[in-house]
Backbone:
C-alpha cells in the first residue's frame, strides 16, 4: 500500500446515527458544526449513513446541510452491532480518505469510535465541546478536563483521519431547508453475517418523563441521593411546578432507579445551563458539577456544611431538605395568593 | 473447567477529593490520594460474583508506573486470584491507541480468557475508548455500559444503559464488556486477601517486551494525539451566601434574594 501524506486526505465526515427512521439530534447538531469546519477548511461535508432500508434518511441529512451522503446499506447492518459497523466504517475510511470524522458522543457513538480508532490507528478525542481550525489547518478538538476546570486542545498531527466525538446539545441544530439538493453516493460493502458480534435480545424503552425538556428549561430543580427514595422526588416535582421548572437528578439518584436516567445531569448525563439551578441533597462531585457549573445562579440545599456543592453555590441553606423544600413550596404558594406577582423583597423579608 | 475473567484496572487520583481552589480557580492536587478508577472496582466485583456463581479464576491487569501495584494489591485483597502489571518507561505518555494495543498484547499473553471487563471510563482521562479499542485489536465482541451480565454455554448476555432505554445484547465469548459505575457495591479487601497479596508471588511484573508489544507502537512518540494547549475555564464568580436553616426565616430570606436576582417567576 502506498502511504499517503496527511494532506492527501480531504473532506469532513459526520457519522449519522439513527433509530426508528430518524437521525439522532446529536448527529444533526454535528451537521451544522461539521459544515462550519468544512467551510473554514475549504472542503466538503459528507454524512455517513449505515443501515438497511434507510434511503429516506439521506434526504433528511441533505436538507440539514450535508453535501454528499455516503450511503452504506447492507443486510448485515440492519441492526447496529459494534464490529460490523466498525468494519464498514474502516473500509469506507480507507477507501475514501476523509481528513476528519466526527461522531456524536452518544453511548454507541463513543464505543464505535473507540473500536474504530484502534482498528485504523488514528487519534480520537472524546466528548468534545468545541472545535477550532488552527493556522496549520489542523482541527483542534477541544474538551473539558479535570472536572471541567480546564479545556484541553487536542491535535492529531500525523495520523488521518482526525477523529472526535462531540457532546450532544452543545451545538445548535442547523436550519432545515427542503429545497437543498445534494449527492447520494452508494457505498458497496462486502460484509458477512459473521461480522455481527452482538445482537439485541431485549429492549426496554425509558418512558417519556417530562413535558418541560430539561435542556430547554430556565429553572432546574435537581435531587440527589439525599432524597432517600423515589417517593420523595414528589416534593421536588412540586417545587419545580411552583417555579415553572424541570426536575433533574444526580447520577446516584438516577442509578438507584428513583428517577429516569434521562434526567441525569453531569459528565455522563446531560449538560444544562439554566438561569437557576437548585441542587437538593447533592454533594457536588466533580462529575456532577461538569453538567451544571455554568448555570447563572446556583442554589444548594444540603445538611452537610462541608459538601463541595456549597463551593460553587450563589445561595445555600444548610439543613434538612425535608424541612426546607416543603417550606419553600408553601412560601411560593403564599406569594402567588398574595397577588400572583413576583414577590417584592419587602413582603417576604422580615 | 471454570471461567477465566480478566479485569483491566487503572489507578487514578481520588476524584471525590479533588476540590477547586476558589481563589485561583484551579484544582487542588496536593496530597490527593490514588484509588482504583471507580467503575473498575465495579468491574472487579462483577468478575468475583460471576466466578462465585460459575467457578473459575479472576485475573487483574493494569498498565502504568510501578506504584500502580497498590491497586493490584487491593484487587487481590478483594479476592482476585492473580495480577499482572505492565510497566515500562517506553509506555510513558501513551494515549488510548498505544494503551489499547499494549493492554491487548498483555491479555493475549495472559491467555485463555472468557471475558475481559473494563470500566466504562476513567475519571482522569474519561474517554471510554480503551475497552472498545482492545476489543477491536482482539477481534472479539464488545458490549459497553453494562450493569447486568449472564453467562451460559459460550454466550454472554448483558444489559446496557443507553440514552433512551435498557438494551440487552448477546454475543459469543470471549467478549469484552465495559462496566457501569455504581452497578453493584464493590466488596472491601479482606484481611486474608491482604495477607495473600503481601506474601507475594501473586502479582507479576511485565515489560513491553515480555508481552510481545512492538516498541514502535507504544509511548508518547507513537501516540496520534497531543495536547497542544490547556485553557483555564473561568467560571462565573459565585456569591457564596450560605444560610443556616436553624436561622429564623432562612427560606424566606433565600426566596427574597432570588427574587432580587430576578430569577423567580412566581405566578
Ligand atoms: C465515570 C463516572 C461518571 C460519573 N458521572 C456522573 C454524572 O454524570 N452525574 C452525576 O451526578 N454523578 C456522576 N458520577 C458520580 C459522582 O462521582 C457522585 O458519586 C454522585 O454525583 C453523587 O451523587 P449525590 O450527590 O446525589 O450523592 P452523595 O454523594 O451520596 O450525596 C448526597 C448528599 O445529600 C446530602 N443529604 C443527605 N440527606 C440529606 C437531608 N435530609 N437533607 C439535606 N441534605 C441531605 C448529604 O449531605 C450528601 O451531601 C460519576 C462517577 C463516575 C466514576
Ligand atoms: N492503564 C490502564 N491499565 C489498565 N486498564 C486501563 C488502563 N487505562 C484504561 N484502562 C481500562 O479502560 C477503561 C476505560 O478507560 P479510558 O478509555 O481511559 O476512559 C478503564 O475503566 C479501565 O478498565
Residues:
Amino acid at each position: 500500500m502506498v502511504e499517503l501524506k496527511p494532506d492527501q486526505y480531504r473532506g469532513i465526515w459526520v457519522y449519522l446515527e439513527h433509530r426508528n427512521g430518524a437521525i439522532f439530534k446529536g448527529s444533526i447538531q454535528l451537521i451544522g458544526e461539521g459544515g462550519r469546519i468544512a467551510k473554514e477548511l475549504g472542503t466538503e461535508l459528507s454524512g455517513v449513513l449505515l443501515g438497511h432500508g434507510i434511503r429516506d434518511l439521506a434526504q433528511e441529512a441533505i436538507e440539514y446541510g450535508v453535501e454528499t451522503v455516503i450511503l452504506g446499506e447492507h443486510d448485515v447492518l440492519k441492526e447496529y452491532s459494534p464490529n460490523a459497523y466498525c468494519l464498514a466504517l474502516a473500509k469506507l475510511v480507507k477507501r475514501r480518505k476523509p481528513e476528519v470524522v466526527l461522531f456524536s458522543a452518544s453511548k454507541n457513538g463513543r464505543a464505535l469510535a473507540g473500536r474504530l480508532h484502534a482498528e485504523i490507528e488514528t487519534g480520537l478525542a472524546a466528548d468534545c465541546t468545541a472545535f477550532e481550525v488552527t493556522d496549520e489547518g489542523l482541527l483542534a478538538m477541544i474538551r473539558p478536563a479535570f472536572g471541567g476546570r480546564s479545556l484541553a486542545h487536542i491535535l492529531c498531527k500525523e495520523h488521518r483521519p482526525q477523529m472526535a466525538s462531540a457532546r450532544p446539545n452543545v451545538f445548535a441544530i442547523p436550519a432545515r431547508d427542503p429545497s437543498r439538493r445534494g449527492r447520494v453516493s452508494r457505498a458497496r460493502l462486502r460484509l458477512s453475517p459473521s461480522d455481527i458480534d452482538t445482537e439485541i435480545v431485549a429492549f426496554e424503552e425509558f418512558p417519556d418523563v417530562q413535558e418541560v425538556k430539561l435542556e430547554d428549561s430556565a429553572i432546574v430543580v435537581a435531587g440527589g441521593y439525599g432524597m432517600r427514595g423515589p417517593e420523595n422526588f414528589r416534593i421536588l416535582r412540586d417545587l419545580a411546578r411552583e417555579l415553572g421548572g424541570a426536575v433533574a437528578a444526580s447520577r446516584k439518584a438516577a442509578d438507584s432507579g428513583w428517577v429516569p436516567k434521562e434526567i441525569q445531569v453531569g459528565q455522563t448525563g446531560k449538560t444544562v445551563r439554566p438561569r437557576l439551578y437548585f441542587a437538593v441533597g447533592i454533594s457536588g462531585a466533580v462529575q456532577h458539577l461538569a453538567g451544571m457549573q455554568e448555570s447563572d445562579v446556583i442554589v444548594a440545599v444540603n445538611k452537610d456544611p462541608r459538601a463541595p456543592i456549597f463551593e460553587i453555590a450563589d445561595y445555600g441553606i444548610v439543613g434538612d431538605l425535608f424541612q426546607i423544600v416543603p417550606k419553600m413550596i408553601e412560601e411560593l404558594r403564599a406569594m402567588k395568593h398574595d397577588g400572583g406577582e413576583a414577590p417584592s423583597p419587602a413582603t417576604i423579608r422580615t | 473447567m471454570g471461567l477465566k475473567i480478566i479485569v483491566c484496572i487503572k489507578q487514578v487520583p481520588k476524584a471525590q477529593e479533588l476540590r477547586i481552589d476558589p481563589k485561583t480557580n484551579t484544582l487542588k492536587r496536593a496530597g490527593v490520594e490514588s484509588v482504583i478508577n471507580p467503575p473498575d472496582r465495579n468491574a472487579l466485583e462483577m468478575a468475583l460474583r460471576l466466578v462465585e456463581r460459575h467457578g473459575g479464576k479472576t485475573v487483574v491487569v493494569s498498565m502504568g508506573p510501578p506504584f500502580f501495584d497498590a491497586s493490584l494489591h487491593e484487587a487481590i485483597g478483594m479476592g482476585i486470584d492473580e495480577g499482572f502489571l505492565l510497566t515500562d518507561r517506553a509506555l510513558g505518555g501513551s494515549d488510548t491507541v498505544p494503551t489499547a494495543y499494549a493492554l491487548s498484547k498483555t491479555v493475549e499473553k495472559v491467555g485463555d480468557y472468557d471475558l475481559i471487563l473494563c470500566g466504562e471510563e476513567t475519571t482522569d482521562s474519561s474517554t471510554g475508548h480503551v475497552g472498545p479499542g482492545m476489543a477491536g485489536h482482539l477481534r472479539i465482541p464488545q458490549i459497553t455500559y453494562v450493569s447486568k451480565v449472564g453467562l451460559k454455554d459460550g454466550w454472554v448476555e448483558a444489559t446496557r444503559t443507553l440514552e433512551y432505554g435498557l438494551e440487552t445484547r448477546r454475543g459469543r465469548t470471549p467478549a469484552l464488556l465495559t462496566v457501569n459505575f455504581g452497578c453493584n457495591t464493590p466488596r472491601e479487601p479482606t484481611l486474608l486477601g491482604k495477607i495473600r497479596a503481601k506474601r507475594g508471588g501473586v502479582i507479576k511484573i511485565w515489560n513491553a517486551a515480555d508481552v510481545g508489544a512492538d516498541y514502535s507502537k507504544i509511548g508518547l512518540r507513537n501516540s496520534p494525539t497531543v495536547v497542544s494547549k490547556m485553557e483555564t475555564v473561568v467560571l462565573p464568580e459565585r456569591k457564596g451566601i450560605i444560610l443556616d436553616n436553624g436561622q429564623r426565616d432562612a427560606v424566606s430570606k433565600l426566596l427574597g434574594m432570588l427574587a432580587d436576582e430576578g430569577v423567580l417567576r412566581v405566578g
About this structure: The pocket of adenosine monophosphate (ligand 2) is lined by residues B 8-10, 37, 39-40, 62-64, 96, 99, 103, 118-119, 121-122, 125-131 (CB under 6 Å).
